[in-house]
Design a protein that fits this description.
Length: 162
């Protein structure tokens, strides 16, 4: 074999290995969109957690595209939480990760401040992807209290869907 052929084979081998490694590191793939009944179930669990802890919350469930599927707000929840819960859910669905990930990265400062320039990214805990069979079928967003409590409710809601 010529040196050129060997170089090409090495480059191809490295490229194939890199593609395989990259595929393993990708977040969960998208699946079919969450239905209304499942969205209501997730929201009910999140709101039950809020009621248990005496927190007033708004909860939104979106499909993988970020389209609103279900929304509910408790009495006396701050008005801003209506839109914030929807945007947290959209962020979690469209970026395939919990909004807490962005919050934690921003807290580190430095180059992570670039996250502030991502259109549609809400860097506040409370948005969580909803998985079924390892695929993202939607996301839940919760707002109304401190972000850690929002996140707690969102995790409870997302965990009800298998």
């Amino acid at each position: 074999m010529s040196k050129r052929t060997i170089k090409i084979l090495i480059i191809l081998t490295l490229a194939i290995c890199a593609m395989g490694l990259g595929a393993q590191m990708l977040p969960n793939p998208y699946g079919p969109p969450i239905g209304v009944e499942s969205a209501k179930k997730a929201a009910a669990a999140a709101l039950a957690e809020a009621v248990k802890n005496h927190w007033n919350m708004a909860v939104a469930v979106v499909d993988p595209n970020g389209t609103l599927v279900y929304y509910e707000k408790m009495d006396n929840t701050q008005i801003a939480s209506a839109n914030i819960s929807i945007e947290k859910a959209r962020t979690a669905a469209q970026f395939k990760r919990a909004t807490k990930t962005f919050q934690d990265q921003l807290a580190q400062g430095g180059p992570n401040l670039r996250l502030l320039g991502l259109p549609g990214a809400v860097p506040v805990e409370g948005g969580v992807p909803i998985l079924a069979d390892g695929k993202i079928i939607g996301a839940i967003g919760v707002s109304g209290d401190i972000s850690a409590n929002d996140g707690q409710c969102a995790l409870v809601g997302a965990a009800t869907i298998k």
